[in-house]
Amino acid sequence: MASPGFLPPHDPFGRTAPLAYELEVPVLGVPMRIRSNAAQAIAHAELTYGAWHGLPAHLVEPRAAACFDIVVHPRTDDMLAPLAYRRHGPVFMAAAGAVMVSVLLEADHAVAFVPAQALDQREWFTVNVLGLAWMLASRRRRVPLHAAVVEGASRALLLLADSGVGKSTLAYACGRAGLRVLTEDTVFVDAEGGTPRLWGALPCHWLSPDTAAVFPELADHPVVVRANGKSRIRVPVAGAPVLTSVAPVTAVLIVPGGDEPVLERLAGDTLADIVAADRTEGFDQYPEARPAVIAWLRRQPAYRCTRGADPRATAALLSALADEAPAVTPASTLLPLVTSIP
Hints:
Layout: E1 21-27, E2 30-36, H1 39-49, E3 66-73, E4 84-88, E5 91-96, E6 99-104, E7 109-115, H2 122-128, H3 133-138, E8 143-146, E9 148-151, E10 156-160, H4 167-176, E11 180-183, E12 186-190, E13 197-199, E14 204-207, E15 223-225, E16 231-236, E17 244-245, E18 249-255, E19 262-266, H5 270-276, H6 290-298, E20 302-306, H7 311-323, E21 329-332
Parallel strand pairs: 2-3, 3-7, 10-18, 18-20, 19-21
Antiparallel strand pairs: 1-2, 4-5, 5-6, 6-7, 8-12, 9-10, 9-11, 12-13, 13-17, 14-16, 15-16, 19-20
């Protein structure tokens, strides 16, 4: 039975669902139309991607919109389970129980079928359903890298680190130090054509609960269990998110250790080789576009930053690097301290 904001399909397959609710937004500069038979699905999409309404028109690709259709079925008693992922050729699929999503990579079209209770779990819905919209946008020369990006007056810093080293905490500290935060975990790089462009848009920081010991202002923020099972503090970004950057880029490898942060120039292709070795399964669905980004990264200045004990001190050092000439030790010829970026 229809209810305000929900127009259920009249068949068990979902074929007759009227996709009457709609959002158009240029995600990563790629026009995207998200449609659903449930208003709440579009409300979640607006919270996830709404910042892209602020992208200047000249940065939006002049092409037909990619389409993401979300068909919501009536509520069931089933629990929302972790999704299994499969891909063959241009078809990517994710499924568990009554949740099924197909992304037709070459057709710029995705279709999701979800039970109504999925809309009650915003975090789960955002990660497992809306998160797949990135695949439709990233096919257009947007190559994902595991990295945080902060931007100062002179350059953008591409911060790379092993999982658990503290990219997110450091990105938050850099934001408090006055740098603009593009992303804390994944950046999309367009290295083709003219000036390389970074794409991000960070709606909120997700910080480890122990971060509040260093930043007392976080003590009153509730701890949220994310869809991946990790407990995090959700901290909204103050002001409008930074969507994109064409600033000169300097890559920084963050490694743990020491009491005080230390910045060293990295020799040769060390950092680019580390990024090239990153083969996290499922993260990048268009590996054929990755070599151009690795070649671009080899041409950028690179540093290693030993993090030290206090992220505020590390952020101050990185702010100097992003804003003007930093204090740097002589060029290092040491072997890299990590071998992959998970």
